[in-house]
Design brief:
Two copies of one chain form a homodimer. The first copy, chain A, has 385 residues and is an alpha/beta fold. Helices cover 42% and strands 19% of the residues of chain A.
Chain lengths: 385, 385
DNA sequence: TACATTATTAAGGAGTCCATCATTATTGAC
DNA sequence: GTCAATAATGATGGACTCCTTAATAATGTA
């Protein structure tokens, strides 16, 4: 939300103060003017002025004053999260998920659709369209009410929203996801890799909320990573940051093979972990070998970035109790300082939440006067030049 | 230089505009009011007002108007880089170097002193003191005229300016460098690892000037790295970012052995490179093996960060023609996208320049109202609350 | 010398913020 | 029920910063 603080007009100052008020209101349920004034550092009079303007713009609303206190009851204000809606979509190999949320990221409705990695491009698009429509309909939101869309997909994504490379989805390389979604929902679209967005979700409202530098490990059938550096998602020059798995020495490609071997070559991993938890020798060994292979690459990430936190998410995080301990031991062997390790609590929904966050980042950029947004009635007025 | 743009007073706006003017003036030699106004986006009248105030504060000076143009000659303004002085110190194993510069980082005087890694703590401190004194005296600057000091040293450094761990310097672990330098020069001191500061120098005014994400490789007797992420030096939670050399798989510890073997175990590397350039089979092979060992770790850094640029500096960068090509080939083998590789042009002075930059960052932080600085006469007036 | 060009100076107006004080609404004690 | 005490609201005036416009000044060229 921070931008270059280059000076300017008086209106620029008003805009900054408006942003400060909104930020204060977003952090709390509702605040009185005096509280707001204290939090923003403005005088009461100015705060009132700013608040009045924000109400006029539709960003802020008044709520019932609370009774029961001494003195004249204060009017209280809240951020109008219901002023707009955003859409977050996760296009995975096995599921497509769409979330409709308000401007606080509060989920209004979600839709999930089972698919397979082998689906062709047209079928996958059809499933995507159906899933989005269901989510919108269930939330009672028309597509032109959506302010911004965020999309997660496997593979490498370029800056314009095109899939540059996807190993795990058939006929997916080269797809222009942004264009497709813009046809579906007339709002700005941003597309990003799923592991990166899962990391973003953790940093937004997950276990990595208070950490500045985070390595996120998506442990599942595929292994992926997302890096949060200085509180922001790090993409890299070619959007390929965190692809340490490409290094053969890291051994990420063969890592799941240890688990596959136990289950007879199939991609069914529930059982290995169950057996390992029951003490099955072979299963325990398979899990340990898997962890050891993963750990080399993770060590490279950790040594490179020296993060405060390592977050483990993805399908295997349900069996985190089996993975975290050996992982920590392995990291202790290689790293100068093993970071704290935490397990994601989002389950399957992390990626989609990250997509929501991506959409919200666009809204916030527009709020501070950067990008454009569809709903110009409200937004255009904010970016008055 | 960017901070949180939280709003506030009207004076805050003036401060922001003052900063914008200073920034514009620092980018150019000298500007007229009209040019300044265009660049800052302010009106001419306001620009004049701001400029007048900055002149009063000592930050800006008027220069001779240029003759020979049509119309009334415009007054021209420049940033007063001579308003203050900063000190940058590089404490290396074999040399201690001190630079005295103005606020533009223009070197006024430099002093170098040869030392050895085996020097005891007291002797090293004595050499340091002598070097700093020489540099100050040669520049005609008294120690209390220094606004800010930056220090580079080998090893891990903590946030308070204490050396947490130094392998290559004897009796250096645990030294409180910041405290020692504050006794020498009464100004705020910041201490940082030498490789990190060399990277900072490249990103400041070296070959990495225009890149946002950079991996800097210090190739020499020791191998070190510095990471620039999103234009800023990345330190890591424990200030240990980039220490990929700790990973045995990276092979950085044994890498110089290939070169040492050629020269009979001594730390004399000039000859190997000379011989290799002359086509000596064994020398060429030694260099290639060295490069191959280095490349694994570099690949890990590159795959992690996906930087735009890889900069090679340090002692071996003088023989860059021999190292860069094989390095690129090795990286092509491992990396998804090999970044552009450039060679530092700073020679030995890069680290000290980075220390200067560290000092200047402190000055700029104080300018934008963050930290405190010694010379309160000028600075205190800026941070008027 | 007149004119075109460009910069400076001055004045008036608008927007934003702050401090202060009178006013209003509510609670709790008598 | 009346009266302090408390705390928020509303209104006024002042200060600061920026912008626009118009008049004035300095230089080069025809």
């Amino acid at each position: 939300m921070t931008e270059e603080p280059s000076g300017g007009d008086l209106s620029r100052l008003r805009q900054l103060n408006g942003l400060a008020v909104i930020r204060a209101l977003r952090d709390d349920k509702a605040l009185t003017l005096t509280e707001l004034a204290k939090r923003t550092g403005l005088s009461r009079a100015s705060t009132e002025d700013v608040a009045r303007e924000l109400i006029g713009r539709g960003w802020v609303a008044e709520v019932e004053p609370t009774a029961g206190t001494v003195g004249r009851p204060a009017r209280r204000y809240r951020f109008r999260a219901d002023a707009g809606r955003v859409l977050g979509v996760d296009i995975g190999g096995h599921t497509i998920r769409a979330l409709v949320t308000d401007l606080d990221g509060e989920v209004l409705n979600s839709a999930t659709l089972a698919v397979t990695p082998q689906l062709g491009r047209r079928q996958r698009f059809a499933a995507l369209d159906a899933c989005v429509s269901t989510a919108l309909a269930g939330a009672g939101v028309a597509s032109d009410q959506i302010w911004s869309t965020g999309v997660a997909t496997t593979g490498l994504v370029d800056g314009t929203g095109r899939v540059m490379l996807s190993d795990s989805l058939t006929e997916w390389t080269g797809v222009d996801l942004a264009a497709h979604l813009r046809r579906l929902v007339p709002a700005p679209v941003r597309v990003e890799n799923d592991s990166k967005l899962a990391a973003l979700a953790e940093s937004w409202r997950g276990v990595a909320r208070y950490a500045k530098d985070v390595v996120f490990l998506l442990a599942g059938v595929r292994t992926g990573t997302g890096l949060i550096i200085d509180g922001k998602l790090h993409r890299g020059f070619g959007n390929a940051a965190g692809e340490i798995g490409a290094l053969p020495a890291a051994g990420w490609l063969r890592a799941p093979d240890h688990l596959r071997a136990w289950s007879g070559g199939k991609d069914e991993f529930e059982d290995v972990f169950l057996a390992a938890r029951d003490g099955d020798r072979d299963a325990v060994r398979a899990v340990r070998r898997y962890t050891r292979d993963i750990a080399v690459g993770v060590s490279a990430l950790v040594l490179t970035l020296d993060p405060e936190l390592l977050v483990v998410g993805g399908g295997f995080s349900r069996s985190a109790d089996l993975v975290v301990q050996p992982l920590r031991r392995e990291l202790d062997r290689w790293c100068l300082r093993t970071p704290e390790i935490r397990v994601s609590t989002f389950g399957d929904e992390g990626v989609a939440l990250g997509a929501v966050r991506l959409a919200l980042e666009q809204v916030e950029a527009a709020l501070s006067g950067g990008a454009e947004l569809a709903s110009a009635e409200i937004f255009g007025a904010t970016g008055r030049n």
